Every structure is written in C-alpha cells, then in structure tokens.
Amino acid sequence: MTSLRRIPFKCSLKKRMMASDKQKRGNWIKASLSLLNLKEGLSEELNDQAIQFHFNIKQSVAAKCSNAVTSPRCTSCTSKLIKRSKKLTSAGTCWCINCQSNVCNQWLDELIQYHEHLPGPKVAWANCDPTLWASQPWEVAKVFQPVGCEHHRNAEESDVAGLLTLMLDCKFFQKLVSNTQTLRKIKECRNKIMHSATE
Fold first, then answer.
1. Longest alpha-carbon distance in the chain
2. What's the rounded mean pLDDT across residues 67-77?
C-alpha cells in the first residue's frame, strides 16, 4: 500500500518540476529578449556618442602633435606595443607605447584619462588597432569594452555586455546615465541570465 501512495506523489512532483522548468525557460527567454531590446535601444546613441568622443580626442591630439596638421595618424604601431610602465607618464598613468611619430603616445594619454579603472590593469588594449585610432571612432570605443571585441566596428556588432561595459568604464559615456549603479545591476543580471542558459 505504501508503494501505491508514493506513485501519485512522484508523478505530481515530476509535473511540478516540469512546470517549474518551463516557467524558468520562459523567464530566461523574456529576459534575453529584454537585453536584445536594450542593446538595440542603446546602439544608435552610443554610435553617435562614439563619433563625438573620437572627435574630441582627435582635436586634442592634433593640438599636441605639431607634426600632424589635420589627422594625427600612425601607420606602424600595434596594441602589442602598449606596455605597463613602472613609472607614471606625464599624464599620470602607467601605460606607454614606443611610437616613433609620438602620435600613438598622445592618443594613449588621452584615452587613459577617460578610463575608469586606471591605473589598474583593466584595459582591453588587445581590442584595438592604434593605426585606426585617428580614423575609426569605434576603434577608440573598443578600448573601454571587455576583451574579445576586436572585430567589432560599431555598437550594433557589440553585445549588450560590451555596451554596458563601455558606459561603465569610459567617463565620457558615463554622462549618458544619472546613476551608473543601475548599469552595474543590469550587467549583473545579464551575466546571471547568460551564464544560467545551460542549467
């Protein structure tokens, strides 16, 4: 008799677990779609802001590089040349690049002034190509995104985590929100959602 009583309990438990799994999948899908909508909503504005940010830095670099009249540009440096320095540079940072034309040094000094996590190690130099800093706004924005964004050419090609990181790690983009704590919470939720997809 006891075995007969356990069978309905097992069946109802199994049904409840299946219903719970179905609800979790539904919630995961809704949350994922919300993140996609957030990315779409941010993309156009972040592309526009990246152009403005690039323009500002380019003007500042041009003013410092007397050898480059309109478009201070280097054609030989790579992100692998960017190294941590034991001493602070003139801009008060600990990153340097040995650029023959001094153009990349100026770009580097400008970029790191906007980075939220300096002098710490959290800069994704591998994302960017210094030879494109003078001509490609998103090449500059990628410095503030997580590692793995090196092939992205605009906000649409980035994922929402990359866009949120850009807004959190770049002081220029932080002006778009009144409270960066909200962005941090969204990013935490995104990470929980994306890392629970296989559970």
1. 94
2. 65
CA 92 to chain centre: 23
Contact call for residues 166 and 144 (beta carbons, < 8 A): yes
**Residue 136 phi, psi (nearest 5):** -125, 105
- Chain position carrying tokens 């962005």: 183
Per-residue pLDDT tens for 133-168?
999 999 999 999 999 999 999 999 999 999 999 999
Q: 92 in the Ramachandran plot: left (φ > 0), alpha (ψ -120 to 50) or beta?
A: left
Q: Cα(83)–Cα(79) distance, rounded to whole angstroms?
A: 9
Residues 73 and 80: their CA atoms lie apart, in Å, by: 17
- Please, what is the angle between helix 2-64 and helix 103-113, to 10°? 130
148 dihedral zone (left: phi>0; alpha: psi -120 to 50; beta): left
Whether the CB-CB separation of 97 and 82 falls below 8 Å is answered with: yes
The label of the residue with tokens 């990349």 reads 104
Instruction: Round to whole Å and give the CA distance between 199 and 3.
Output: 32
Sign of CA dihedral 156, 160, 161, 163: positive
**Torsions phi, psi of 16, nearest 5?**
-65, -40
Q: At what angle do helices 180-195 and 2-64 cross, to 10 degrees?
A: 130
Name the pTM for this structure. 0.79
- The whole-angstrom separation of Cα 137 and Cα 55 is 8
